[in-house]
Design goal:
- With 115 residues, this protein is an all-beta fold.
- 0% of the residues lie in helices and 57% in strands.
- The chain has no helices and eleven strands.
- Strands 2, 4, 5, 6, 9, 10 and 11 form a seven-stranded mixed sheet that branches. Strands 1-3-8-7 form a four-stranded antiparallel sheet, with no helix packed on it.
- A hairpin with a 2-residue loop joins strand 9 and strand 10.
């Protein structure tokens, strides 16, 4: 019932920046937590950052101080500002939205950090 469209991925050099966006549409009433996960080749999917409807944020230790999650409730959109990117940040990034008791996932966007 919720559709998520991601954008903003791409190829960037180490130390560079990217901003990911994820816009939700459909049955948006009842959306609570919004967040970003990532999955690198050969690794499990991990939570990168999350933000509640009240604005509380949480980050995995490896991105603290470099990434910032935010949301625009009027646009039903969540963002991930990624600075000081490292090669180990290379992964497919997935938007996640929780509505009531159901999780919805974006299509994934590739982030590649390489010289």
């Amino acid at each position: 019932q919720v559709q998520l469209v991601e954008s903003g991925g791409g190829l960037v050099q180490p130390g560079g920046s990217l901003r990911l966006s994820c816009a939700a549409s459909g049955s948006i009433f009842g959306i609570s937590t919004m967040g970003w996960y990532r999955q690198a080749p050969g690794k499990q999917r991990e939570l990168v950052a999350a933000i509640t409807s009240g604005g509380s944020t949480n980050y995995v230790d490896s991105v603290k101080g470099r990434f910032t999650i935010s949301r625009n409730n009027a646009k039903n959109t969540v963002y991930l500002q990624m600075n000081s990117l490292k090669p180990e940040d290379t992964a497919v990034y997935y938007c996640n939205v929780r509505r009531l008791v159901t999780d919805y996932w974006g299509q994934g966007t590739q982030v590649t950090v390489s010289s």
